[in-house]
Each structure stands twice: as structure tokens, then as C-alpha cells.
């Protein structure tokens, strides 16, 4: 079993393709912005816990994750609820969590047959 924290820290996962698209959108935004101190973030719009993520993987994968929840303490200054700040103008995620997980599991040969 994999030793893990209790697993209640919050996550806001964005697919790598969506993150790359956010960088491209950010280039357009910063070329037309007058506020040099403006900051923006990207978010999936869906917060979940590490336990939620593992449960979702378990529903899709051919074998379940073996996690020993609580075997490790939380790290000092652990972030429990991510806050990406103001949204990047003109950007939206295109790949949702389940589709992204299916893609990863399929690439690794671990996706349950439909």
C-alpha cells in the first residue's frame, strides 16, 4: 500500500493541454493589458480532494489504488483549498477530469473496457 496523508487536501486539476492553451491565451492577454501588476489564474472549476481523485481513478481503472490513508502527516503549510485568483480572460478548460483520467489510463493500458 502507498503511504499517504489523510487525503483531504483540495485539488483543482487542469489537463496539460488546457494549461498549454492557457499560456497561449495569456500571451494575447498580456500584449493588450495596461495593468503591469495584473495576475490571472486557470481553474477547472471543479475542486475535489485527493481521496475524491483516487476514488474516481478506482472507478475507471482495471485495478484499484491501494492507499494507506493517514500513514503520512500533512506537510507543513499544506494548501487545503487552491485559489487560482481572477480567471484568465477568454480561457476555459476543454478537457474535463474524467476524460483526462481516461486518456491517461488508456495510454498506460489500465482503463477498464467499456
Could you walk me through the main structural features you see in this protein, from its secondary elements to its overall organization?
The protein is mainly alpha-helical and 114 residues long. The protein is built from 3 helices and 4 strands. The chain has helices spanning 16-31, 50-60, 97-107; strands at residues 2-3, 10-11, 48-49, 67-68. It has a two-stranded parallel sheet. It starts with a strand and ends in a 7-residue tail after the last helix.
What is the tally of beta strands?
A: 4
Structural class: mainly alpha
Shape verdict: flat
Distance between the termini: 27 Å
Reported for the largest beta sheet, the result is:
2 strands, parallel
Number of helical regions? 3
> Would you identify the regions where 5 or more consecutive residues have pLDDT less than 50?
none
Looking at the chains present, what oligomeric state does this protein adopt?
single chain
Q: Walk across the major sheet and give the strand order.
A: 1-4
Amino acid at each position: 500500500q502507498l503511504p499517504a496523508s489523510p487525503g483531504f487536501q483540495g485539488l483543482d486539476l487542469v489537463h496539460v493541454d488546457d494549461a498549454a492553451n492557457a499560456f497561449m491565451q495569456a500571451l494575447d492577454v498580456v500584449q493588450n493589458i495596461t495593468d503591469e501588476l495584473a495576475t490571472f489564474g486557470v481553474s477547472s472549476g471543479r475542486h475535489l480532494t485527493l481521496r475524491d481523485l483516487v476514488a474516481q481513478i478506482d472507478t475507471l481503472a482495471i485495478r484499484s489504488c491501494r492507499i494507506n490513508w493517514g500513514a503520512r502527516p500533512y506537510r507543513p503549510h499544506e494548501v487545503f483549498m487552491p485559489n487560482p485568483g481572477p480567471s484568465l480572460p477568454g480561457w476555459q478548460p476543454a478537457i474535463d477530469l474524467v476524460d483526462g483520467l481516461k486518456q491517461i489510463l488508456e495510454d498506460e493500458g489500465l482503463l477498464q473496457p467499456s
